[in-house]
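User: Sequence in, structure out. Go.
Assistant: Echoing your sequence, followed by the structure tokens.
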Amino acid sequence: MSVKNAVKAKMEQHIQQMVATNPMIGQLNTQFTSWLLGSGLTGKEIIEMIDTNMDATIQPVELSTALERTTGTQPPGWVINGLMSVLDMDKDGNVTVADLHTYFESIGLPSGIEETPAPEATPEPEVDEFEELNQEIEEEARRQVEELIRQKEAERQRLLEEQQAREAAEREAAEQAKREEEAAKAKPQPILLEEDGTMVGHARFIEILEGMKLSSERREMIAQSPTQSCQIHISSIEKTLVGQGPLKNGMTIIGTLSENNDIEVELRLPAEANEQTMMFQSKHTIEADAQICDWNVGRRRAIFAATEFQYL
């Protein structure tokens, strides 16, 4: 095989490898070959048109200018880079006039060096060889933009629905609070004053508590309990199981109110009075300034907390 044929075969192998690894390069090569063979120019004329500074080296800008001048359209940069990689047979980053001649021979383009130039034919209307490829790129870009717009619209709709749901929940919460407030206002308040304007006594207060069904109502009522003097007939004495502040670890008197012996109550005394309390006896009476502080649900009796007391 001659050196010329070997170089030609190497160029063909190089092009096949490029096409195999990148189908887009194959499409560029096909269009470039079609342009070259359809130009009516010889290899020598094409090289003269491209290598304008005649330095035997083809620059990307020279190739781009030649294609723009003959097709009427400036090819994209990636097209020029692809063609330069096809022509760079030895992959040294440079495309020489020799590389162009080898490429022309591989595609069957007359070199024009030894042949008489063919009579100039009537030029046919120039066709943009890259128009179809550009259309494909523009179509893909359009699809991507449409997909991005669709995603943004879906996200906007999702955020709108979330906002509407939050606003609906806030309105429902506000309406519920308003209903509860109106119901609280409509609920009859316990009567804490006697007809003469004096505060109801402990016995009457306890009767009101016994008539209540809801623990929440009973707690609200207990919070209004006044501190009043009362007398309790002692039935038994127990250690306070639950107490706060000075009443913690104190003693609890179990007995009945002197004003109504049918009402059983508990009276919690402070821990500092434990020694004195242990001396108390049943059937005796204790007088105290006390306030109802809790309600024994199991035994249905009021629990008093004493601030001052006296054993009678």
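User: And one key feature?
Assistant: Residues 131-186 form the longest helix (56 residues).
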